[in-house]
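COURSE: Structural Biology Practicum
ASSIGNMENT: Worksheet 4, Part C
STUDENT ID: 0417
INSTRUCTIONS: Below are two proteins. For each, the amino acid sequence is given first, followed by its structure token string. Answer the questions at the end about the second protein only.

PROTEIN I
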Amino acid sequence: MVEIIENLLRQTAFYNLTWGNYVMILVACILLFCAIKLQYEPLLLIPISFGMLLVNIYPGISAEPVTDANGVETAAGGLLYYFFKLDEWAILPSLIFMGVGAMTDFGPLIANPMSFFLGAAAQFGIYAAYFIALAMGFNGMEAAAISIIGGADGPTSIFLAGKLGQTNLMGPIAVAAYSYMSLVPIIQPPIMKLFTTEKERKIKMDQLRHVSKLEKILFPIIVTIVICMILPTTAPLVGMLMLGNLFKECGVVRQLTETASNALMYIVVILLGTSVGATTSAEKFLQVTTLKIVVLGLVAFAFGTWAGVMFGKLMCVLTHGKINPLIGSAGVSAVPMAARVSQKVGAEADPTNFLLMHAMGPNVAGVIGTAVAAGTFMAIFGKF
């Protein structure tokens, strides 16, 4: 009887956990609080933090399959290991992009093509973080995978980390990316206010022109052809984004639009979130490298916001005061939260100012820009 009890005790998590596991369990609970109580990106933060909780209680849930000398599988891997393979193969991030496309209105971007420049300017944070990461001792592919956090686009961060073979960094990168996405309303406003004057924040922009249905149908087709011809490595992300948008705008495949933007989207979010959370076991996550990634992610995000605002100021000057610089900060691509922050900061300066739709142009341009940045890194390192 004593032996049975001892065996049972050895099987409990209490017997096998390290202090690091307890730290990660606490971190998971904090993230759950932020997601549920503070509503910081709950759709993604809840599955990520719960996956973190599971893997630190029972590491076997993400264990790799056991194979013999001939490579024959003799024992199956853990449940979340197979979820994670879908991340590694870039399936889940690409499907999320299709869902985002099915939910996104590119009308503000089409109505004001100059928004493309604001979205591109906000990607400066990615390249700034890349060179800083190199200076900190990361190799080229590690630096590229980390720097993409500056786009505030979780799926792209996961996609690029997988494509560049940086799966060991995927957990910290994904957690940092989604954390900064959720903290957009806290991080961005101080930077926006610091680099703009009250007069600039009060600028009211002219109402956007009406965009025809034909323009909205042609846009995803043309963007796919142009971008993928120039940079074929962007096809998995840009292609899926534009396919989802074409579903939405063509008006003849309502069932596909609803599936891509609802049922399929949320299934993918569950699989992606829990599998990413399962990469944050204590032995992988509690390292100096993780702290560096978190710091670099913040630097990238801050630089991206700053660059978008500064380019917005330049456009304000060139258009003789017709562009409010605040909309430049929305180019970091955290859709639609960054656009809402532009609206909020503008309304604080003038309650009658309505910038939301104007900010949506750079916001969706930022999604495309981040995907292009990821494709550029893949092309540089020959990862097709």
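PROTEIN II
(use this one for the questions)
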Amino acid sequence: MTDFTLNAQARTDLGKGASRRLRHSASIPAVVYGGDKEAQSLTIVAKEIAKLFENEAAFSHVLELNVDGAKQNVVVKALQRHPAKGFIMHADFVRVVAGQKLTAKVPVHFINEEAPVKKGGEISHVESEIEVSCEAKDLPEFIEVDLANAEIGTIIHLSDLKAPKGVEFVALAHGDDKAVANVHAPRVAAEAAEGAAE
């Protein structure tokens, strides 16, 4: 069982300058909000949070946030990363309240990708994560997309996926049936055929 625990300290020194100083001291600013408590500004050791999020499952798991010894269950709402270097610069967490629905982004796992490739198709992954709404106990680690029966020209939409029990796709609930992946003919072959026609 992976340990999804993160230690943090309450932070009173706020503002851009304070955030910059924090990052220089190998920590990052973070915030936790939601539930019936006030939003709280935090400090987290950069190395600790980077290690936690090396595990993809941490993005779609209820985490135990230990703030100065007081534990609370949270999910990650957003991570702000450095545009060039990719390291985490800021984190937003939302408190988990039993019986209350939460929204979280869950990674997409594509399986049986070799099937359409054997038929000569190429696969484009349009979405790498899907926003879901559910209770914390129903939060899936990932959403599986099976490409075993995908033919060339197939577009897989959110409505083609089976949501786990108790889980709702947020975009679909708002009437947006997003494409998640598509299988298309290789561009090289298409260009060669066009060239021959000319």
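ANSWER KEY EXCERPT:
Q1: The longest strand covers residues 70-81.
Q2: The radius of gyration is 21 Å.
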